[in-house]
Amino acid sequence: xxxALRRVFLGLVALFLSAPLIVVTGVSFNGNARxxxxxxxxxxxxYANFFTDSGWMSxxxxxxxxxxxxxxxxxxxxxxxxxAVWHYRSRAALTLQGLARISFLLPSVVxxxxxxxxxxxxxxxxxxxxxxxxxxxxxxxxxxxTIGLGFQxxxxxxxxxxxxxxxxxxxxxxxxxxxxxxxxxxxxLVFVFILSLNEYIIAYMVAGFxxxxxxxxxxxxxxxxxxxxxxxxxxxxxxxxxxxxGVIAWIGDLPKLLGGRTQARG
Amino acid sequence: xxxxxxxxxxxWPGLVTLALTVVPVLLLLRISLAPQDPSAPWGPGVxxxxxxxxxxxxxxxxxxxxxxxxxxxxxxxLGAGFPLTxxxxxxxxxxxxxxxxxxxxxxxxxxxxxxxxxxxxxxxRIGLSKLLVALGLMDQPDxxxxxxxxxxxxxxxxxxxxxxxxxxxxxxxLxxxxxxxxxxxxxxxxxxxxxxxxxxxxxxxxxxxxxxxxLTLGSFVPPLALGRPEHWPMSVLIGNAALAGHNLPRASAMxxxxxxxxxxxAWGATQTLRRRDNP
Lengths: 266, 279
Description:
A: mainly alpha, MetI-like fold, 78% helix, B: 13 helices
């Protein structure tokens, strides 16, 4: 009974989660400019359109640049902070970590107003740096979590052994800590990259008119009327997301990176 | 020596966090008390106009809508997300990774794209209403959006991956021996679930609930794209006040109100957890 219930439930959830994705992918293959599903006159017209239209391509490149830089900035904040929390267990580091997590835990519209007010007050609204720094600060909690998990997974005996054998701090860092930490660090980078790539309201508030990222362009288009080109953008983002997390699952232990058990029992 | 190294380590994270988290929130409080100025983001001096405008009927109604929406989305997400996560953690490793990648991939999609997908899915020409007609549940195809149901469906979609990721560590590390013990002692499956699994995962469940509610409170695009103006929660009013109304003090005052609601929610959650801990 439970098994049947479980199958039906999981099937329904899978359907619920994939339905919008299937529809959008289907519409992107339409031959004409209408919202048809299943697609009619299947063609790659809108894909060609996306890759040849300079507006869509520049929005896409801009989004990628912002996402790459903000993930680097976020990790540059998270790595020393997580190390300080793990190595020194100092109260200052813990307090700072708590503060750094706050932006992610506030309602996103509120955060977008907070940043709009801030960048207007310093007289610097409407620049790409605003978007990059705002995203880095909001999403820093993700690398903080993954890198924190990474530090916790280091066996203290391993560090002690290295020290006993005469390794200096820098050598311990390079030979013991770095290899263990690397997958967690990459996981944090990818998380920030993908969330920044897709973030709309903060990017729109701080610099939406000057720095038009792909989500902003899609939303502006949505208000003007429908073009299947935006479905192409959606499909590309979906593929990037699946690719990113597929790579993480491939190079690392995904359940463990997310804080689960190392070995899942069958 | 080690103190100096610690300060050096914390220099950059501390600088950025103070400049871009603490200072901006303080500025928000200040601007919520500034008068509106059509020629500048805000005017000089102090004014309570923005807060006074919160007492208007439409502001209060939108706050009520926000709360309704946040609680319904959080309840549905936890109700569906809990059994989902539980069953995922009991799968073979390969199936588990597949589900996690799938959920993470939906998590990565912009709320703009998800809202747009739901618009397409619920439209008259495509989608769900045709299926419902074929099943005999509806008389003729009709547009299912804008509606409250459409907003809730879209928000649940956006929130469920966060619910699963919050519940996953504790459900995954749950000592299976305890469940087996309960079963061996003759407890039926549902009983071992209610008396072993639920008490052990109370804390992450409450956290997931609060997180879902906060994500909903802050959502702008889904209620704007899929709801009618009379359903708009406070988040949409905040966005519109800042963007269309060019009234940053009013947007700030509403943001402060939403911050208070968020703080109240978090406080309520810690109180429930504490009370159960010391009966």
